[in-house]
């Protein structure tokens, strides 16, 4: 079915894209709102765009030698009309590109690589790389617009999800609207898309340059029939990001070991955290290890380099259940907030990392007032919440060294203790609106996610009452 048959003309399509250009979205970890960029027929002006008939295969990309790539990492290409001259996703840029997420509705049945290439004025091989990176998503039916949508956007959504159109869609048969709105990754550049399909294209996927600097074989701690233990480097992702499943620890460890089957992620630690990670050799063992975690048979010890001393013993806080960073913490119990507990086994004074080490690992001081002494703590993690150690230590006035997200807020709280609406010296609010404003202001005082390292290492992991136990190497600050 084509949209021409349903009297959807070019004027309507142009109006659709013009209205969608007003859409905004919140980028994870960013303190401000960025404008979504929506596709038009001439999004980027290029003098020469390679439109030759090429197969959008990524076999040549997959066969590239990883070690040789490391020597050719370059800075981003020059910008033209606000966007770079696109070529390929390798060599890897040293920094991430500015956010660019495109949202399309397929107007005529076409191979996905060809359609995106024409719609966004991107080279076909670049689009094929995006698909290989896992940066292209589709849904059979347009997802529901956000609460901030304009009346025009709601009208467009209602049009593309009207029963008259949907009953003609082959891909919709046998599905509910909710089922058809589920976003899935596009996995092959030659995959055909039906008219009316929604596409989300992450044109600038998050990159992990450190993947190409690491001696991955040297980071393997153990190899068994069921799993591999990796001493994960900071500045890398265990299993990749939502728009980059290529540059992950699991992939690079698989290649370093010469395995024919990919390793599977069994648990996560933050990108900026280093240390022990268990990678399963099969889906079956991946499920087995997940069950061990659920049954609390897995014990994790961390080394935390704090900016101030932390008392020994069990720390208990409650974390706001919102799946957003920064994670807000309260000492007082709040309904539906998540229990966070850890045990500080010891805490000792160590020198603050010197300038050479700080530069090497991208450590930011964030204007912390005392930078001569740091405090190395051994932590037994009792509950496993995202950012738990980072958020709990910051709530105790001892943020992790280099944690550019939580350190700025801790500095602000030292200057003005009542600024934290969940702290010991929180103010008294006359209304819910006043408290909501205070919470928003507190969130805004936090910084950005660290680019490489923070003072946090998953130093030991064990399970089955210590039958399996592995330790990481020395942390970067020693």
UniProtKB/TrEMBL annotation:
Organism of this sequence: Beta vulgaris subsp. vulgaris
GO biological process: enzyme-directed rRNA pseudouridine synthesis
Pfam family, one: PseudoU_synth_2
Domain Pseudouridine synthase RsuA/RluA-like: 227-395
Gene Ontology molecular function, alphabetical: pseudouridine synthase activity; RNA binding
Domain of life assignment: Eukaryota
InterPro entries in UniProt: PsdUridine_synth_cat_dom_sf, PsdUridine_synth_RsuA/RluA, RluA_PseudoU_synthase
Name the record gives this protein: Pseudouridine synthase RsuA/RluA-like domain-containing protein
Biological classification of the source: Eukaryota, Viridiplantae, Streptophyta, Embryophyta, Tracheophyta
């Amino acid at each position: 079915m084509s949209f021409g048959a349903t009297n959807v003309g070019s004027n309507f399509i142009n109006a659709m894209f013009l209205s969608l250009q007003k859409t905004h979205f919140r980028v994870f970890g960013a303190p401000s709102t960025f404008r979504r960029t929506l596709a038009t027929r001439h999004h980027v002006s290029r003098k020469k765009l390679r439109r030759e008939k090429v197969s959008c295969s990524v076999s040549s990309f997959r066969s590239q030698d990883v070690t040789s790539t490391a020597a050719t990492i370059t800075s981003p290409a020059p910008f033209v009309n606000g966007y770079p001259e696109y070529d390929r996703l390798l060599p890897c840029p040293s920094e991430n590109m500015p956010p660019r997420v495109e949202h399309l509705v397929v107007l005529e049945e076409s191979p996905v690589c060809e359609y995106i290439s024409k719609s966004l004025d991107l080279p076909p091989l670049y689009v094929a790389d995006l698909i290989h990176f896992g940066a292209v998503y589709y849904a059979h039916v347009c997802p529901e617009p956000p609460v901030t949508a304009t009346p025009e956007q709601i009208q467009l959504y209602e049009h593309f999800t009207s029963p008259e159109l949907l009953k003609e869609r082959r891909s919709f048969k046998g599905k509910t609207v909710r089922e058809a709105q589920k976003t899935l990754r596009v996995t092959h550049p030659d995959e055909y898309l039906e008219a009316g399909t929604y596409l989300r294209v992450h044109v600038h996927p998050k990159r992990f340059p450190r993947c190409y600097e690491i001696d991955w074989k040297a980071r393997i701690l153990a190899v068994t029939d069921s799993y591999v233990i990796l001493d994960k480097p900071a500045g890398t992702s265990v299993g990749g990001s939502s728009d980059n499943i290529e540059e992950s620890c699991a992939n690079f460890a698989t290649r370093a070991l010469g395995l024919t089957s990919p390793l599977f992620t069994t648990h996560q630690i933050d990108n900026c955290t280093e240390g022990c990670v268990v990678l399963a050799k099969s889906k079956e063992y991946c499920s087995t290890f997940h069950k061990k975690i659920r049954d609390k048979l897995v014990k994790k010890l961390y080394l935390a380099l704090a900016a101030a001393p932390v008392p020994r013993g069990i720390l208990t806080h409650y974390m706001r259940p919102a799946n957003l960073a920064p994670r807000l913490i309260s000492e007082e119990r709040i309904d539906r907030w998540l229990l966070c507990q850890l045990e500080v086994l010891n805490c000792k004074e160590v020198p603050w990392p010197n300038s050479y080490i700080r530069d090497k690992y991208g450590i930011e001081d964030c204007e912390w007032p005392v930078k001569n002494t740091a405090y190395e703590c051994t932590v037994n993690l009792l509950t496993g919440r995202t950012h738990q150690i980072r958020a709990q230590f910051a709530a105790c006035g001892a943020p992790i060294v280099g944690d550019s997200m939580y350190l700025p807020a801790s500095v602000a709280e030292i200057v003005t203790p009542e600024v934290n609406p969940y702290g010991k010296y929180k103010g008294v609010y006359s209304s819910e609106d006043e408290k909501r404003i205070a919470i928003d202001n507190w969130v805004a005082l936090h910084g950005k996610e660290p680019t490489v390292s923070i003072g946090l290492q998953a130093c030991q992991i064990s399970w089955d009452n210590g039958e399996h136990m592995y330790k990481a190497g020395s942390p970067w600050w020693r």
